[in-house]
């Protein structure tokens, strides 16, 4: 369970995390791959 505040929380089944490639300038790290987690949720499900 993810506790947002004293009155708001999300159950584990309401949250989905997706790994995606992070965007940004290449520069000297052009051959490196960076990932980030993108949260998705449907609290009305």
TrEMBL record:
Superkingdom to which the source organism belongs: Bacteria
MF terms in GO: peptidyl-tRNA hydrolase activity; ribosome binding
Listed GO biological process terms: rescue of stalled ribosome
Region (Disordered): 26-45
Full protein name: Prokaryotic-type class I peptide chain release factors domain-containing protein
